[in-house]
Design goal:
two-stranded antiparallel sheet; 13 helices
Length: 316
């Protein structure tokens, strides 16, 4: 008796599977996120593309296009604009150098104070009250912070509390050698609370068993912090650092209110220069060039931060 082959199940011919985006679930997902994509396109992508285009053009005060100038705006920014980058002096001066000064001093001091307070606050009885007091400046707008510290730095000892304590009449915001550091300290006061909260949460996320095991082995508190806690804070520290640096790169309001870029342009930073060129001098194309430089400075930070998130795990 001859056997007949049993036909297999009839189905779609084997081939390359369709990407999930072309399946029913993929279209449904696109439908749900389409409002967010539309908003991102209108509020982020289009302005960014428009700004990049304007950076290669000469425009009127109302940002109306006049003519293409290629890389002339960039060449002018880095070689002829002494207010942005004065490389003829040593050390160099200008808005770009001021921003680098802010990045180093402001970020290091804010993270250092935030970490110090986070570690010490965990050892006091009224930790929550102490943290709430230190975090209060974060709830204040930058404009209000600027007004508060403008009174603190007032040259008249009857008004300025700093001069009243030091018994001097020094113009902290009127001297080129003190204005930037006075501004930095005011912003550190407003930002330390953020660093403290993030790092304190990360510290509390470290398993207590690890700390107790180290103490059992005879490690003191400094050794525990240096060899256990600090290495486990690498990702939270990176997140806080990126946030602070980006905050500095787009810094504008506190300088606009406290000094207006003075004295003599000594406290100008990149964002303030962009505003001044665009709305003060009516050079929208040149202001867009400065905005593109800010974007170029921020992109590597974001790429680095995302790569850190993918390669490490936050301790919780």
């Amino acid at each position: 008796m001859s056997s007949q082959p049993v036909p297999g199940p009839v189905g779609r011919p084997r081939g390359r599977a369709l990407p999930s985006i072309f399946k029913k679930q993929g279209w449904q997902g696109l439908l749900f996120i389409s409002p967010a994509l539309l908003l991102l396109g209108l509020l982020v992508v289009y302005p960014m593309v428009r700004t990049i285009m304007l950076s290669f053009a000469d425009t009127r005060a109302n940002l109306k296009f006049r003519r293409w100038v290629g890389f002339d705006n960039f060449e002018r920014l880095f070689t002829r604009d002494r207010g942005f980058f004065d490389h003829d002096t040593f050390p160099p001066e200008g808005a770009l150098v001021n921003n680098l000064r802010w990045v180093v001093v402001y970020s290091v001091v804010s993270i250092g104070l935030g970490l110090l307070i986070a570690v010490l606050a965990a050892r006091v009885r009224y930790e929550s009250i102490l943290k709430a007091i230190i975090f209060i400046p974060m709830a204040i707008s930058a404009t209000a912070v600027a007004i508060i510290w403008k009174f603190v730095y007032d040259p008249d000892p009857k008004i300025g509390s700093l001069n009243a304590v030091l018994n001097t009449d020094l113009s902290w915001l009127g001297r080129t050698d003190t204005v930037n550091y006075a501004l930095i300290f005011a912003y550190v006061w407003a930002s330390t609370g953020f660093a403290m909260v993030v790092l304190s949460a990360a510290l509390k996320g470290i398993p207590e068993e690890i700390i107790e095991a180290a103490r059992t082995d005879g490690a003191n508190e400094w050794a525990i912090f240096r060899r256990i806690q600090f290495p486990l804070l690498s990702l939270p520290l990176a997140v806080v650092t990126v946030w602070l640096v980006i905050n500095v790169i787009k810094l504008f309001d506190i300088i606009f209110v406290m000094t207006g870029g003075g004295p003599g342009g000594a406290s100008e930073v990149i964002a303030f220069t962009m505003y001044d060129e665009t709305f003060g001098n009516g050079e929208g194309g040149y202001g867009a060039t400065i905005a593109v430089v800010m974007l170029i400075m921020i992109i590597p930070l974001m790429i680095w931060n995302i790569s850190r998130f993918r390669s490490e795990r936050v301790v919780t």
